[in-house]
Request: fold
Amino acid sequence: MNEMTKPQAAPAEPAPRAASGLLDRTFGLTERGTSIGREVMAGATTFAAMAYIIAVNPAIMSNAGMDRADLVSATALAAIFGSVMMGLWANLPLAVAPAMGSNVIFTYVIVKQMGMPWQGALAMVAFTGVLFLILSLSKLREKVAKDVPEALKIGIQAAVGTLIVFIALRGAGFVVPNPSTYIAMGSLRSPPVLLTLFGLLLTPVLVARRVPAALILSIAVLTLIGFFVPGANGKMVTSVPSAIMAWPRWPTSTFMALDIGYLFSHFVVALPLLFYFLCAEFFSTLGTLIGVTGAANLRKPDGSIPNATAAFATDATASVVGPLLGTSVVTAYIESITGVQAGGRTGLTSLTVAGFFFLALFFWPIFVIIPAQATAPALVLVGVLMMQGLARIDMTDLVNAVPIVLTLLVTVLTNNLINGMALGTLSYIALEVAVGRRSQIPAMVWGLGTVFVAYAIVIAQIF
Reply:
């Protein structure tokens, strides 16, 4: 995830007096010029900026055939585990939760397109987490960061962002199948379409105006309006919840439901997706660490990130625990910058976020009735923010432009990320060879190209 506004360092303020005692010694409050009160306020601010994930993640992943109420619990529990681990081990003001983008690929590419059962898909995500943990604890981390070309990284991220936008609009009925044009806009005489349209105008305005908790506020407003908007079968868009509060629900149907055997019996088919999840998680975490520690002025004099190994390992471990609970890749959230801007400087901020996710477990009956028309505008904003990396690329250079455009357009037009990644990677190799830079192509990219060719051959035989 990325925020609409660029990260800005919090203005210099006099260092508050930190509470002495165990918390001060554990988190170094005095050393980092903060206090318990400021850390708690920062944690509340971060939670407000990312609380939408409790509604959005279950709404997406339930389309894979998983129980939505159990997914609410799995989402919150994964966020609690990751945020607590980040706070206690890495001592950084970073909140952790299931990743946007990865949940879309999990549901719509792996399960719905490729036909992999969600139990096998969870096993694949957990296996990726193990690989990421090995990568995080070794020097391979620096090599991966250096060797994967920027054009491929940004192209994949932008493609996922575009796919999120399309899936969100389709799920809300804002775009529909059309026999002549393949897709078209839904009828403006349809109340659910009009509700989605209102949300598409409201949500970016709230974000652009920097309204606190803009995305979750947008979801709440649209959900409330949905009680009065007629939908299909004579029912309202938003159904009445069975209760406002209830005891937390253990994710019984998804907990430890991984199918390891399916993963290894279909390993060749899963290999490109393993690469996607590994790269997406690695570079998302790297970008978030750079952005948040920079905004908090926590970097070391040499520019390095404090406790980087612990932070990467936290992400990796959480991405193993997440699938055990029943959700997809878990990662550090760039929304943590909002907490940094509110004064967060230590892991106590992350623990506060975990505390709010724990409280959210008691409100699961509300989260399961949120309609697609309420989450679609938030997802569109998420998709737009994932495309911001395009601004860093010189699109007048065909070696950069062609792989990015092919990755993005082929992903959306074929509704298949692997197709986009394959053509983007192979076009990058072809263009680098054509301009006489064959020796500059990293071995990792050659290997990826080989994987995609093998994948295409296998898929051609299967289908």
Remarks:
- The chain has one domain: 25-149+178-385.
- Residues 25-149+178-385 form one domain.
- Residues 2-13 have pLDDT under 50 and may be disordered.
- The beta strands are 96-98, 175-178, 182-185, 330-332.
